[in-house]
Design goal:
CATH superfamily: YlxR-like
CATH topology: Hypothetical Cytosolic Protein, Chain: A
Number of strands: 5
Number of helices: 3
Oligomer: single chain
CATH class: Alpha Beta
Number of domains: 1
Distance between the termini: 38 Å
CATH architecture: 2-Layer Sandwich
Strand content: 15-25%
Order of helices and strands: EEEEEHHH
Radius of gyration: 13 Å
Strand order of the largest sheet: 4-3-5
Shape: globular
């Protein structure tokens, strides 16, 4: 039997993709928002395509706010964008 591929929806563009191809954004139990590069940290995860456009879309459409049911300050988005740039050269 074929192994089931875990799919996740991008909070930016809304497309369903293979979880392994996506970036996981994490809300830790301490209510901080970080990029989870391993995908294994504890906390509430939301997924983004590995493209800056999706991060920008998620910021515009408040995708992360909805996923985490909290207000996300601009500096969090700015640090996510920085981390994103570092990850993707």
């Amino acid at each position: 039997m074929a192994k089931k591929i875990p799919m996740r929806q991008c909070v930016g563009c809304g497309e369903m993709k293979n979880k392994k191809e996506m970036m996981r954004v994490l809300k830790t139990p301490e209510e901080t928002i970080v990029l989870d590069k391993t995908g294994k940290k504890n906390g509430r995860g939301a997924y983004l395509c590995v493209s800056k456009e999706c991060l920008i879309k998620a910021r515009k459409n408040k995708g992360l706010e909805r996923s985490f049911k909290m207000n996300i300050p601009n500096d969090v988005y700015e640090s996510l964008e920085k981390e994103f740039d570092e990850e993707n050269g």
